[in-house]
Amino acid sequence: MDRRQKKTREAIFKAFTELLAEKNYNQIAVQEIIDAADIGRTTFYAHFETKDYLLKALCEKLFGHIIDTAMGSPHGHYHYSCKYSADSVFLHLLKHLQESDRNILELLSSQNNEIFLRYFKSNLKKLIITQYADKGLLNKSSLPEDFLINHIASSFVETVYWWLSRKMKETPEEITEYFLGTIEPILN
Amino acid sequence: MDRRQKKTREAIFKAFTELLAEKNYNQIAVQEIIDAADIGRTTFYAHFETKDYLLKALCEKLFGHIIDTAMGSPHGHYHYSCKYSADSVFLHLLKHLQESDRNILELLSSQNNEIFLRYFKSNLKKLIITQYADKGLLNKSSLPEDFLINHIASSFVETVYWWLSRKMKETPEEITEYFLGTIEPILN
DNA sequence: AAGAATACAGAACACTTTGTTTTGTATAAA
DNA sequence: TTTATACAAAACAAAGTGTTCTGTATTCTT
To answer: Do residues B42 and B64 both lie within one domain?
Structure first.
């Protein structure tokens, strides 16, 4: 990829991220992004067809890595002990969130949080299907598997939201305990 | 209130609701609402300062009644037997949703569902505080009360969303069973 | 290092949407 | 009937959108 492209792409992401942290997505004009990124009008449209595509690209950039690492190597990345169960995936995710650059946390805490939480949830569902459903862990309950997948993904995302909106006072371990406290009784 | 005001106000709500059912909120121009409602440009702005205020007014109109009736007379409205516990509030809500004019269901199922589900959730929290927290029903758990309120409200809203997105195949009783199946184990 | 390729800036363009103002008319309330 | 006011219609500046053009600067290639 051309160095010039990387540079302007990064400038656009940076400007967009900063704007998202301070104001509503709907109220951000393409013109503002252009001004903040200090690029030409033509250049923006050469990179992103619309503002929505830019948003999508940002989501993929932010969440892609976190979800991928959780999918690929869910265990063994951390040194503390954790049982080799699907449950630890959630602790893994929380730790990654806490350690991630502050962009993702800032956006998840901003007034645009719903946009990113939605994207987070849709990716999380795929993860749960891999880690739970495909391993037959959701068959024990009397509730429909489809319902359970949605419930688990929603609960986790909402837990993360609750954690963030209260300035992450608790440790990832505590939050995992809270979260598992709400879903483990259902699965047994 | 002036008959003319009522009439145009209703025309605006009708046009807005129909537009919301078919396209994204962000992509609806005030001009479209004006055209669909067949009113003058000045008239719209005389009634609603912005599109956002119109949305807020619509939310209050749609959810205000449902939540109020659930708060005021949570039991005794239906003839079938139901235990006089706080749990029946959820069945009450689902039945009201099912019976409500198709506007609210159409909007909750539209691509704008998040806007309305968010509003629904915030109102639901107040209801849960009244029906659960203030009655001391959330003290038995080892989880923080604040966390539980958010969890219960989120879970119910997500359950409703799951129900709607699958065309309401199940009865309100079945959905209540599913939902209570996820939260009752936590409270005992 | 030289050439070809291309990413970019800057300006101009037609177009849409926004929110306000003005003037006159029709409808409601007193 | 009289008074009040909700409304329509038109015009307005301002801002934003997405595209097209031309020339310049940077980069990749060989």
So the answer is: no
pLDDT at residue number A77: 38
Scanning every strand, the nucleotide with its C1' closest to B27's CA turns out to be: C17
In chain A, which residue's Cα lies nearest the Cα of B161?
Answer: A150
User: Which of A150, A162, A181 minimises the CB distance to B162?
Assistant: A150
DSSP at A146 = H
For residues A90 and B24, give the distance between their C-alpha atoms in angstroms, rounded to a whole number: 33
State whether B158 and A178 contact (CB < 8 Å): no
CB A58 within 8 A of CB A19: no
How many independent structural domains does chain A possess?
2
Q: What is the pLDDT of residue B69?
A: 82
Is the distance between the Cβ of B29 and the closest atom of strand D smaller than 7 Å? Answer: no
Same domain, B57 and B37: no
- Inter-CA distances, B36 with A175, B113, B169, Å: 49, 22, 33
Q: B105 and B43, same structural domain?
A: no
Question: Has this prediction a pTM greater than 0.85?
Answer: yes
Taking only the tens of pLDDT, chain A with its 188 residues reads 899 999 999 999 999 999 999 999 999 999 999 999 999 999 999 999 999 999 999 999 998 888 888 877 544 334 333 344 556 899 999 999 988 877 889 999 999 999 999 999 999 999 999 888 998 888 888 999 999 999 999 999 999 999 999 999 999 999 999 999 999 999 87
Residue nearest to nucleotide D6 (CA to C1'): B4
Distance of CA B174 to the CA centre of its chain: 19
Residue B153: which of B183, B187, B177, B174 has the closest Cα? B183
Residue B140: the pLDDT is: 84
- Residue of B100, B176, B117, B96 whose CA lies nearest to A158: B117
Contacts of B185 in chain A (CB under 8 A): 185-186
In sequence order, the 6+-apart residues with CB closer than 8 A to the CB of B56 are: none
Same domain, A93 and A146: yes
Q: Which nucleotides of C are covered by protein (CB under 7 A)?
A: 6-12, 16-22, 27-29
